[in-house]
User: Fold this.
Amino acid sequence: MRRGATRRSPDESLTLTASQIIVLAIPVFLLMMLAEYGLSRYRGVQVYRFSDAINSLSLGGLSQLSGLFTKLLAIGIYSAVYKVVALYPDQAFWSTWYGVVLALVFYDLCYYWLHRAGHEVAVFWAAHVVHHQSQQYNLSTALRQTSSGALLGWVFYLPMAVAGVPPLIFGIVALIDLLYQFWVHTELVRKLGWFDRVFCSPSNHRVHHAVNDRYLDKNYGGILILWDRLFGSFREEDEKCVYGTRGALRSWDPLWANAQVYAQLAQDSWRARNWLDKLRVWFKPPGWRPVDVAQRWPKPAFDVNQVQRYDPPLTRSAMVFVGTGFVLLLTGVAALLWSAHTLGAATVALWSAALLVIFWSLGAVLQSRLGIVAALMLVSAALATTSAAVGLLQLHYLFKPLTMAIAVVLVLRRGGAGPSLWLLVAALLASLAGDVLLMLPGNLFIPGLAAFLLAHLCYIALLRQQQAWFPSRPALVLALATGGAMLALMWTTLGDAGLKLAVSTYVVVISLMAAQAIGRATVLRDRAATWVAVGACVFMLSDTLIAINRFLLPLPLASLWILSTYYLAQVLIVLHAPRHAEVPGGTERAASLPTQTDIASGHAGQA
Ligand SMILES: [Zn+2]
Ligand SMILES: [Zn+2]
Assistant:
């Protein structure tokens, strides 16, 4: 170690240490989980399920990523309060071993009340619920943490700042308290006698994670369970635990896991007629509902015997894909956590956003919301966008063409036949060509524009299949008016007549595409058509951003906004595009999913 090469302030070394210690702990966590899994197999009990473990670890990863931002807020407020009102800020005292132990006990007491609020006040439960959603109980459950806890949780630790515990010592004991709680999340360690009555242990923390009536809202302690015995919330383990939450998550989506309870509270608050109830929803115990809301939208009473395990089937290939993807993803998360302090906040945010998309995609494969190739397209799109936004052009040159190439593979693998298939493939190939032309050095703007013009014409023809031209007049007028306004705004900056003609043609075509998609959605009135219409409108938005950035004023983080909207549009259209397969009779029919018949008739059609 080179001493004195760089000097860091205590605050800086604290954030550095916190994120990096977690990274260093990852191999330890993984090894202990492996040991737990091995022991469970040896004893012939099933404590792990693949999808559940991936979901829990994803939530741990997301929590660490969000911590890169929210911890700054929490530590910042703590430090500010410490500077102003610390009663006994004696660094020398707090740095002794007994000072640290005292701080740890103090922290554990504050944690007890935060954790208790997390179970007894709805808005705190909305954050904490993430830790409890797993229906399994194993070491991966320990890493299942909220991403929104630090937003309000800091309030409970302010007494420590007032007492004068220095921020650095606070950070250290916070980490000790967190890391201690890892080992107690296991079913394989049974009762430990006196230990169970003094410290938080596997037995009494199992009780905490159970939804059985007798176990509800018990055993909040982090390191010491003595707090529960002192404040009357202790319960011994004497009945088999049923794990999870009463409002089961039933999803592998890590974003929804974080939003679930907030969304329910917002819905109840919105529905309540009384203004006081609208507010009460957030501060009453979880499960409390305004009388009028509970009457109009009743929920069945909870019955522990009716609890069903969420376990959607998973194919072997999906398992291999998610497993491999997750190892790579975890490596990416570790790399970002390790180097976050050396990167700017914008760069950290951009990479976090890409990793978040990948976490979501893997969860979507686990619950069959996305196929493997569609997930690959999304991952590639996220990497193409972030690499451009942070200026890693080599990576961008790889992922940009790759994304649309994957889209073509996705569409071809999906099967189907006839003009719908080939128009979609042509649109994607033209987009791929446009992507490459706009990416290459030199002024290839006009050829790139021409490629996308072709792509939009193919999309219009695709959306015209089995539909009239522009079924909704208002949509047509609105889309053309929007395009026209945009054109008028940048007309004088367009320069020569050639460019004016090219851009005008382009604006008319993209407006017609949006009009056709919206019109089609108004006729079909189904989910797929609506998503395609949304995709077409987002496409128009993306092109508008390109135009503003190029001809009116350069946008900050332009490539982020342009590419993310562009890929969102392409993904929505590709996933929900109409598929019409020819049947032997010569007429066409819509196919929502490719079937054996579709593929067979497709081959027949080609022959
Ligand atoms: Zn809890
Ligand atoms: Zn726990």
